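Retro notes (design track)

What went well: tokenization of the new backbones is finally stable.
What didn't: we kept losing track of which sequence belonged to which structure.
Fix going forward: every design gets posted as structure first, then sequence, in one message. First example under the new rule, 259 residues:
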């Protein structure tokens, strides 16, 4: 199963999706643990026992509910959410460098060669804000030139980017099926390297906290992508019907299309 939340109108919904069929198994107008557990408790024990894996993000509510209702199922933290946390750390480093360079400027410096050099560096940092959260194979030629120029003058940012890519290269479908004993040593080595970067320490702590659920990806190769796709379909469904004017009728039609 996959579980995710979505805001429809101004209300938060929790959606449980059958990973095999891509259909909605449950949809409730709540994101609280008590209400989610209460509704899921309406499923029979036999139905719940059929849930072997649950793909989710790091929302602690999901872990709390599933640990209580189906402790024998394996929870899998969504690969793409984990990567986003790692990439966010690069963004923190970039913003820190941007702030440092901006603080070096004054009206007088802007007019001299040193100031112009700082301004050029600030512009480079602004231009790569999205690109440095991507693999280099997604950069066009112009962006490659820009980022290589930035990495030449900002070695620290290059190091952080390489650390993120090392993690991404570890976290691949090609490793699915290998034993945890084969997979984990490389992760532990990555921890040691990443821990040297102040902005990545919190990410390392988070990964260690959810390590078992992250490693479960290599057992099953599952992600939360079907939940994300279904969220997109629901959003297009809302847009095609000119918004959410009648919630009850919307839910009725949603059941017809997606259940």
């Amino acid at each position: 199963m996959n579980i995710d939340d979505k805001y429809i109108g101004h209300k938060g919904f929790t959606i449980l999706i059958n990973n095999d069929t891509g259909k909605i198994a449950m949809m409730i107008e709540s994101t609280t643990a008590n209400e989610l557990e209460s509704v899921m408790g309406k499923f029979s024990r036999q139905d719940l026992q059929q849930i072997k894996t649950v793909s989710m993000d790091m929302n602690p509510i999901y872990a709390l509910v599933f640990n209580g209702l189906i402790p024998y199922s394996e929870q899998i933290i969504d690969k793409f959410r984990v990567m986003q946390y790692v990439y966010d750390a690069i963004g923190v480093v970039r913003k820190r460098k941007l702030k440092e360079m901006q603080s070096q400027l004054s009206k007088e410096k802007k007019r001299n060669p040193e100031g112009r050099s700082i301004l050029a560096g600030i512009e480079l940092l602004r231009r790569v804000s999205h690109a440095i959260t991507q693999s280099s194979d997604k950069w066009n030629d112009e962006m490659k030139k820009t980022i290589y120029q930035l990495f030449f003058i900002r070695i620290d940012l290059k190091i952080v980017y390489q650390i993120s890519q090392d993690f991404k290269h570890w976290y691949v479908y090609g490793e699915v099926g290998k034993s945890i004993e084969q997979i984990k040593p490389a992760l532990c080595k990555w921890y040691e390297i990443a821990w040297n970067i102040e902005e990545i320490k919190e990410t390392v702590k988070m990964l260690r906290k959810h390590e078992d659920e992250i490693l479960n990806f290599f057992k099953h190769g599952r992600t939360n992508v079907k939940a994300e796709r279904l969220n997109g379909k629901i959003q297009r469904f809302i847009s095609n019907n000119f918004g959410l004017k009648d919630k009850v009728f919307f839910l009725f039609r949603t059941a017809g299309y997606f259940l």
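Added context from the reviewer: Residues 244 and 250 are 7 Å apart (CA to CA).
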